[in-house]
């Protein structure tokens, strides 16, 4: 399953993902996060950056831009040295792939916003839920601090 976490800048997308990751992993899920980087070139895995935070929360990470793709994945020394294994496995062995961003890709999504009216900017795919501290009518709605409930909701989608 691919699930997009989309929303406005600084709305809490990374925070939500990093807070959910231990819950999802505790439930036995193998989860990869594809982090959208729309600003051309990037440096990979610098301490304090979103990709570093997500990786250190327990997820494997893919960073994508218009000119470069990086995959940061935990592997054993043997697996990391076996090019055929890396090629054959890539992302197909994950239970869940979460994208942070990719709002125009049209994937099923959870929208994270500061204000309810901002949800309208993210209608390019099926909105499964909205995360906002203010009530959002017409959608399944969670507050930012309801991380456990949001994780349970995602788990219910996988069942």
Structural notes for this entry:
With 159 residues, the chain is an alpha/beta fold. It has an eight-stranded mixed sheet with strand order 4-3-2-5-1-6-7-8, with helices on one face. The chain is built from five helices and eight strands. Helix 1 packs parallel to helix 2 (50-57) and helix 1 packs across helix 5. This is Molybdopterin-guanine dinucleotide biosynthesis protein B (MobB).
Radius of gyration: 16 Å
The count of domains is: 1
> What separation lies between the terminal Cα atoms?
11 Å
Structural class: alpha/beta
What is the fold-level CATH name, i.e. the topology?
Answer: Rossmann fold
Helix percent band: 25-40%
* Overall pLDDT level: 86
CATH homologous group name? P-loop containing nucleotide triphosphate hydrolases
Poorly predicted regions = none
CATH A-level architecture: 3-Layer(aba) Sandwich
Strand order of the largest sheet: 4-3-2-5-1-6-7-8
Number of E-state strands: 8
The best one-word shape is globular
Total of helices: 5
List SSEs in N-to-C order.
EHEHEEHHEEEEH
> How would a textbook summarize the main sheet?
8 strands, mixed
CATH top level assignment? Alpha Beta
- The proportion of strand residues reads 15-25%
GO molecular function, one term: GTP binding
Pfam family, one: MobB
Domain Molybdopterin-guanine dinucleotide biosynthesis protein B (MobB): 2-133
Protein name: Molybdopterin-guanine dinucleotide biosynthesis protein B (MobB)
């Amino acid at each position: 399953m691919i699930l997009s976490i989309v929303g406005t800048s600084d709305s809490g997308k990374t925070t939500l993902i990093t807070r959910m990751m231990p819950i999802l992993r505790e439930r036995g899920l193998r989860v990869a996060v594809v982090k959208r980087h729309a600003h051309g070139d990037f440096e990979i895995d610098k301490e304090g950056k979103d990709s570093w935070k997500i990786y250190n929360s327990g997820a494997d990470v893919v960073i994508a831009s218009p000119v470069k793709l990086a995959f940061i994945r935990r592997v054993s020394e043997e697996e990391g040295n076996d090019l055929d294994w890396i090629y054959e496995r890539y992302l197909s062995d994950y239970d869940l792939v979460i994208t942070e961003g990719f709002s125009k890709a049209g994937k099923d999504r959870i929208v994270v916003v500061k204000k309810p009216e901002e949800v309208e900017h993210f209608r390019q795919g099926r909105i499964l839920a909205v995360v906002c501290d203010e009530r959002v009518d017409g959608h399944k709605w969670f507050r930012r601090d309801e991380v456990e409930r949001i994780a349970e909701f995602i788990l219910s989608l996988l069942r």
